[in-house]
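User: Metallothionein, Streptomyces thermogriseus:
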Amino acid sequence: MAVCEVCGNDYEMAFELRAAGQVHIFDSLECAAQRMAPICDNCNCRILGHGMQANGQFFCCAHCARQKGHAQLVDHA
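Assistant: Predicted structure for Metallothionein:
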């Protein structure tokens, strides 16, 4: 079995996620998202979708980007 690096659960169905040359072990998608997903630079939520990026900052939506001065970013609805 393998131990999740977020919650410490020793789980027989844990999985490996490889990113940036490193191997991570998780027991659930929730733990993987907690460790790996970027955080919005405005509201601090985890960005699980496509999100937006401007000048090295990450945003969950255009509203948050505008709050930080990036008026050029818009949502596509």
